[in-house]
Amino acid sequence: MTRIGSSDLDVLPLSLGGNVFGWTADRDASFEVLDAFIDGGGDFIDTADSYSSWVPGNEGGESERIIGAWLASRKPSGVVVATKVSQHPEFRGLSAATVRRAAEASLARLGVDEIDLYYAHFDDETVPLEETVAAFGALVADGLVRHIAVSNYSADRIRAWVEIARRTGVAVPVAVQPHYNLVHRNEVEDTIIPVAEEFDLGLIPYYSLASGFLTGKYRSTDAAGQDSPRAQGAAKYATPAGLRIIDALEEIGDAHGASIAATSLAWLRAQPTVVAPIASARTVEQVPDLLAGARLELSADEVQLLDRVSEWTPTRA
Fold first, then answer.
1. What residue ranges define each of the domains in the chain, with the CATH number in brackets?
2. What is the pTM of this model?
3. Could you report the per-residue pLDDT of 6-18, keeping only the tens digit for each?
4. What's phi and psi for 169, nearest 5 deg?
5. Rounded Cα–Cα distance for residues 175 and 196 (Å)
């Protein structure tokens, strides 16, 4: 188990991404994935109020509703649920009123009395940061939220949030959620990890498997015939440099009897301040590899080999 920053939340070091629930996984498939995750020892679920508003016919909140129905049906103990605010079509931005109404709506969809971990999903610079910080602090003070966190914030804005919270005596963030993986490293390592270390924030990376590229499934930049946005996103990483990373992951994984995906998640877990990479599963068959990634321990030499082979950033090309 791993502690999330300065909080009292201890979790298996893997977070199950709920972005696919109500999108590429319907209610029944989502229930099966959640059951397999919990049965395998998982206890940390990540979602957002906006999932999956981008799907035609959806309005947002679909993932939270599915998770809420599953929680009501299974009544699991010790499960930590994280959700987010700022992108739901009805609750955009981070004004105090929006944050409060969005949190209440999420509580209703999830069917819980308190949100374990509540993120500001994206920064909203149209609202004074003092207002947003106070709004999140009030949610904690009123018992609607247990701990707060930020996602997709710059290091400067994270530092400013913490300083305002400390000065005003409200709850400080305990976690930060950035885009971070073996093919997207530099910005997080240069700016976010140092501020996380400074303020004892747990790092909970999303896109941990680079839209599936770091599973080894996509080994060509030719996305012809690929009918999913995920496949299109993964294919862009299948450059010679990207494939060298896959080859290294495969070699190290084979030595442990582990998959490429599990080895990639294990590398992330070995990075400073990282608590629990987020990875999603559309089917039950995908869950064991994710759980294996929460338990696989790489040697220092293996971590360094992956560090060396991944010293590039395709997004800056």
1. 2-212+259-297 (3.20.20.100)
2. 0.94
3. 999 999 999 999 9
4. 75, 25
5. 8
